[in-house]
Design goal:
Helix content is about 20%, strand content about 50%. The chain has about 600 residues and is α+β, with helices and mostly antiparallel strands.
Length: about 600
Amino acid sequence: MKFIKWLLALVVTLILLVTVYLTVFFDPNDFKPEIVDAVKKQTGRELVITDDLSWTFFPVIGINLGGVSLSNPEGFTPKAMLEVNKAVAEVALMPLFSQQIEIAELSLDGATINLVTRKNGTSSFDGLSGDNSKKAATPAAETSSNAKLNDINIGGISITNTQINMIDEAKKQTQVFTLKSFTLGEFALEQFAPIAFEFSATMPDMTVSSEGKGELKLSRDFTQLVVNGLKIDTVVEGESIPNKKLETSISLATQIALDKQQLSIDIAQLTAASITAAGKVGVNYATKIPQINADFQLGDIDLDTLLPKTETAAVTEQAPAASTPAVEPDLSALKQLDVKLKLTVKSIKVANLSTQNWLMDVGIKNGVLDLTKLNADLYQGKLLVSAQVDARQAVASYQFDKKVTGVQIRPLLKDAADVDLLAGTANFDVKGKGKSLLPEQLKKNLLANGHFDINDGALYGVNIPQMIRSAHAKLKGDLSPETKEERKTDFSSLTGSFSLDNGVATNPDLAMSSPLLRLAGKGTANLLTEALDYRLTTSLVNSLKGQGGSDKDALAGIDIPLAITGTFQKPEYALDTKALLNNQLKEETDKAKEKLKDSLLKKLGGF
């Protein structure tokens, strides 16, 4: 018992002696000139410490400093790169003897960092490392690798009112990032510690505010870092933001294998505007280009609510803006990606076009984007697409294979392009390739071939049987008003193939059949001007009975020329009445010849 008392007395005496020595014989302010000179020699910068350095003692030993500033390079504005109002570091004294670090408090308040990039490309970081930084780092690294700690305990870390000003003189822009607070609660190895932060940023085109909280744990061997229950709420505002304001919230957990340089994130819930999502992300950052694997599940997405509202009236009144040359999108960043993404989406609505049950597999590697699979439900049918974009050249190239089966074409055209032209169950396939991703160049450079067939449908905007009856009546001299009937032509099938070159789709074999008529011909559709140019031949199968015709129509079997012109939005249909008259006269002439032949045969007694 006496031994323990003597031992405690000895320890207290040693602490008192250290305290007396530090306070009487060792003034930290004596080292301020040496610290300033060392910083000047290493970086060429001016370090200023205006406040006196002071000690703290038992049960912790620490140092308080304030009024610290580090200058930017000469000629920079602002002159100070770093300014610190107050910093406190306190470490428990006794655990140091058993290679344990117990930090009672680490706090930083009122730090301002000014990072300047000048017009000539120089920045605040230039010269900070110094000429001998690499040499100095080597022994330090070796020392730290050999030293092993038994434990770390931190009473708390607090960083408040820290502001980073990023100043770009060439762009005349200043971006301000403010860490209002960051706190780490009581921390020990192998135990979860609470964390919280509040952050804001002001940029030329938007402002961001974010706050979050969660808990983290570090393994005793410093190889595993785990963050659980991290919830981050963010608000982004600006003119370029959809609806000028976007609120997001994310809840996640993450694990970082520091030794293997691997990161995994489990996103329990992500909301942005009205979009909800969940998923997993894995990152291997040990490779030269980090490898990313992601799997996301999204709910309903209505992109129309996120797109800016078009003000057509205001646009038409404004003078046309000076045209600027279009520039190919810069996809060079794809070369720095190694990504595999699997995505499922409940539904997507864009430009009033609705799709459901998306399933997509995408890979990006070495500057090539591969859409290996995209499946979706589309207007009671199915969409299947595979595609590739090659961005290894300045002008990207692409290729695709697209199939559509069982789609109801009328509502699709109405929603996608506000075109009421065609109805029926459509099957469609097309393969294509091209260069350039500029909208106009896309149409010009695309080379494609495809086929379509539409069953049990109708052609809207024209009633071909009525047109034939009307033209026939006028040729016979009947100028009575036409009866009003629905402008619609029913058909049982509509088929054809097409090729696309230089923005023009050529269809050489359009064929339509119905119980009343047959239609065949060819034509073109110009994707650049939306102009239609078709020349078709229509023939009646038997009669027009049921659509206003007689039991046996006089035009049955006669080829009737039909032209389709105009645009996608406003197609125009016209019969070639001159050709119709010639065909009918030929038909009547042939009938008269047969009648005359029969009459002569009778008079000749059957010879």
